[in-house]
Amino acid sequence: MRCRKCQLCLLALLTLLGLKVYIEWTSESWLNKAEPRGTLLSSTTPNAEPTLPINLSARLGQTGPLPFAYWNQQQRNLGVLPSTDCRTWGTVAASEILDFFLYPQDLQRFLLSAACRNFPLWQPAGGGSPVASCSEKDAPYLLLAVKSEPGHFAARQAVRETWGSAAAGTRLLFLLGSPLGIGGPDLRSLVTWESQHYGDLLLWDFLDVPYNQTLKDLLLLTWLGHHCPNVNFILQVQDDAFVHIPALMEHLQTLPPTWARSLYLGEVFTQAKPLRKPGEPFYVPKTFFEGDYPAYASGGGYVISGRLAPWLLQAAARVVPFPFDDVYTGFCFRALGLVPRAHPGFFTAWPEDLTKDPCTMRGLLLVHPVSPQDTIRLWKHLWGPELQC
Ligand SMILES: *[C@@H]1O[C@H](CO)[C@@H](O)[C@H](O)[C@H]1NC(C)=O
Ligand SMILES: *[C@@H]1O[C@H](CO)[C@@H](O)[C@H](O)[C@H]1NC(C)=O
Q: Are residues 272 and 193 in the same domain?
């Protein structure tokens, strides 16, 4: 009888011990996964401090024989992009690119206005409540800057209800173009209501189309300079991403200081080349750009250091416009002499069936794309007690 009790007692103790070991092991392997892919003591330690040489040719790899493509030619001669009379830059491009009329329509439109980058905030009729500035003492540690489009109400609401909901040290902002598109429904009244209700929409008065996404990056950086200069990190992310905020925050807090100061972190593409099939997405004509893309963090979601904002704006004034926002950011970082850091927890081309399984999400930092419905479901299950992995 007594012995039986002893056995039970021992069994219980052993179970507890096993559980402890298991918990420690899982949290440790989770931590290991969150380690940066690169090594800290790499022999080719890249610069930690941004610099911007007078002549960017060497930085941007324009050292060999100069290709005939327009971007390459322009970059070699460009001082600073014109800030006034920006339309002239596009008109000149259109006249100097011999096969400009064969370019896809949206690329043509992009080039015609690509040097125009100053757009006012969009004001709802009758005035709106502007987005509040950061106060000096509670600048966010991590700004969640979500690129959205006026019509993506469901995606925004899913983010607000889940990973974008106020976690300590974060602040959520959505970046949008004008709610008055071309040929679409008039979303002004809906967006006005949303803006007044949530106060988290930064809207600018430009056409919200894929080739205008770089404007959101640049206008945000300008806005931050005036309204939130002390933010530590900025997460640039799409509205259909799912972000594991606690894991991301923990990763950022444990970064070596030299990394943290000049951070450009995400899923990094190092040897991407322009796609050359006319008619397909991301097509780039040979007469526009020759060469490889710079190493860049995929636009699905990446993190940069807030203190780089003014540097990036300076770089952008000196880098010839490029139609894809994430590649363009890669060019700007390269111009500054900074390299992207790859992290294996960023999955920006996530197979949709995997989203159905919250277990695969554990240990990841950012996944894209995820539908609003899956975002809600993942959020509910990720930390639910019923989740057995
Ligand atoms: C930059 O340097 C390259 C040679 O490396 C030169 O051909 C080019 O003219 C220079 N550009 C400017 C704007 O000075
Ligand atoms: C970007 O927005 C500006 C301002 O609304 C517009 O003139 C331009 O055509 C847009 N770009 C594209 C590629 O549609």
A: yes
12 confidence band (pLDDT: 50, 70, 90) = low
Ligand 2 site-directed mutation target among 87, 209, 218, most atoms within 8 Å of CB = 209
Task: Express each pLDDT in 143-195 by its tens digit.
Answer: 999 999 999 999 999 999 999 998 999 999 999 999 998 888 999 999 999 99
Of all protein residues, the one whose alpha carbon is nearest to atom 4 of ligand 2 is: 206
- Find the 322 Cα to ligand 2 centroid distance in Å: 14
Helix boundaries (H) for the chain: 2-33, 70-77, 86-96, 105-113, 153-161, 188-198, 213-227, 245-253, 257-261, 309-316, 325-335, 352-355, 358-361, 372-382
pLDDT band for position 63 (cuts 50, 70, 90): confident
CATH number of residue 178's parent domain: 3.90.550
Q: Is 281 in the same domain as 154?
A: yes
CA-closest residue to ligand 2 atom 14: 109
pTM given for the model: 0.87
Using the atom order of ligand 1, give the atom closest to the CA of residue 79. Answer: 13
Can you give the residue range of the structural domain that contains 174?
142-344
Question: How many Å apart are CA 272 and CA 300, to the nearest integer?
Answer: 16
Per-residue pLDDT tens over the stretch 198-246:
999 999 999 999 999 999 999 999 999 999 999 999 999 999 999 999 9
- Between the CA of 206 and the centroid of ligand 2 the distance, in Å, is 6
Verify that 151 and 260 share a domain, yes or no. Answer: yes
Q: Give CA–CA dist 261/304, Å, rounded.
A: 9
Measure 212 CA to ligand 2 centroid, in angstroms. Answer: 6
Residue 248 lies in a domain: yes
The token pair that represents 8 in the structure block: 């039970």
